[in-house]
Amino acid sequence: NDGSSFKPTVQPSRHLPPVLVNMRRTALCLGSLAAVSGKVYFSETFGDGWESRWTPSEWKKSDGTQGTWKLSAGKWFGNEEEDKGVQTAEDSRFFGLSAGFESFSNAGKELIIQYQAKYEKDIECGGGYVKIGPKLSDPTGFGDPTPYNIMFGPDKCGYTKRTHLIFNYKGKNVLKKSDLAYKQEGEGTSHVYRLVVKPDNTVRVEIDAEKIYEGSLKEDWELLAAKEISDPDDKKPSDWADDSMMDDPEGKKPDGWVEEKRIVDSAAKKPDDWDDEEDGEWEAPMIDNPEYKGDWTVKRISNPAYKGFWEAKKIANPEYVDDDSLYKYDDFGFIGFDLWQVKGNTIFDNVIITDDVAEADAFVKKWQALSEVEKAKKKEEDD
């Protein structure tokens, strides 16, 4: 709702002083301005006509690994028609699907990207993330090489699990320094993913309406060059002692220390019937040395000259340039799924790109209603 239908009515009361009436009018007018300030850039519930809004990729068609999409509500649903989303239809396939919209920039605005994902079975190895980027010239070619601005959502292969959040900066896709928690558990149950990118260069991630991360683009992604670098002209002094321990210079191997592990059996005798010509030259067998004490090593002591680990001094990085517009992209024009999945049957639904949290919250409420049904059905099945 862009708020255009909102018409505040002000009915002055004869019981209110004029100043309060005016204040009430002002508050309602400000409320109407707030209502129209938010904008929905893209919204999709996969209802009638969704095929005309989305374009399947043909990026992997030539090698026979391009997967197909179908509409499904999955095994568990509240209202089958209402809860239908777009589903990956096969196993061990690449899946590509994208939708375009009027290009916009998020300059000076809070950007919310949100969608719903349900794995009908364990994916084993694959992704359930979205890519959002500049307008596509040919959506049928959408695939891994396609440039994007942001990639966001779950990814798993074996024991490696995480929620991806990648930002493109100056042509380079930059992963978060530490992984976000993986929450895409529970086959047959839906999860809702929300990314909020703010003009103060901070980011917030919510999964299933719970915050799992909030932090700084500057600190948690290596988008900018380091502020300081090691001085290339700073050299370690020749007498710098790096080793905290040293051999005891007064340590001496004790007299009589036996290091031979095996010795010739001095009690062995050549058998009487041994024939040197036929049996070869007789040699006494080897036996364990009862005097053996092991390899001797000098004991270690603290090094009195130890100075610690040496590091070159830090200097200002001449290549460092601050950027207070890391969050900003000049062109958002598509959203898409570009996935490899060992096990398919993933359902995506309720996709929204907006700067209006109320619009995104409305989809969260839809997810909450569906989630209650799914959890109840899953409990019945598990019991």
Calculate Rg over CA atoms.
Answer: 35 Å
What is the distance, rounded to the nearest whole angstrom, between the alpha carbons of the first and last residues? 42 Å
Helical run tally = 5
Percent of sequence in beta strands: 25-35%
Rough outline: elongated
The tally of beta strands, per DSSP, is 22
Major β-sheet annotation = 8 strands, antiparallel
What is the residue-averaged pLDDT?
90
Quickly give the structural class. alpha+beta
SSE string, helices as H and strands as E: HEHEEEEEEEEEEEEEHEEEHEEEEEH
- Share of helix among residues? 10-25%
* Low-pLDDT stretches: 1-36
In brief:
The chain is an alpha+beta fold and 383 residues long. It has helices at 18-37, 50-53, 217-220, 276-279, 357-382; strands at 40-44, 54-56, 69-72, 85-88, 93-104, 111-119, 125-127, 130-133, 150-157, 160-169, 172-175, 190-197, 202-207, 210-216, 228-230, 245-247, 262-264, 286-288, 300-302, 314-316, 332-341, 346-354.
Walk me through what this model shows:
With 383 residues, the chain is of the alpha+beta class. It is 15% helix and 32% strand. It is built from five helices and 22 strands. The protein has helices at residues 18-37, 50-53, 217-220, 276-279, 357-382, and strands at 40-44, 54-56, 69-72, 85-88, 93-104, 111-119, 125-127, 130-133, 150-157, 160-169, 172-175, 190-197, 202-207, 210-216, 228-230, 245-247, 262-264, 286-288, 300-302, 314-316, 332-341, 346-354. The strands form five sheets. Strands 1, 3, 4, 6, 12, 13, 14 and 22 form an eight-stranded antiparallel β-sheet that branches. Strands 2, 5, 7, 8, 9, 10, 11 and 21 form an eight-stranded antiparallel β-sheet that branches. It has a two-stranded antiparallel sheet with strand order 15-20. A hairpin with a 2-residue loop joins strand 13 and strand 14. The longest helix is centred in the C-terminal third of the chain and has 26 residues, at 357-382. It is elongated and about 100 Å long.
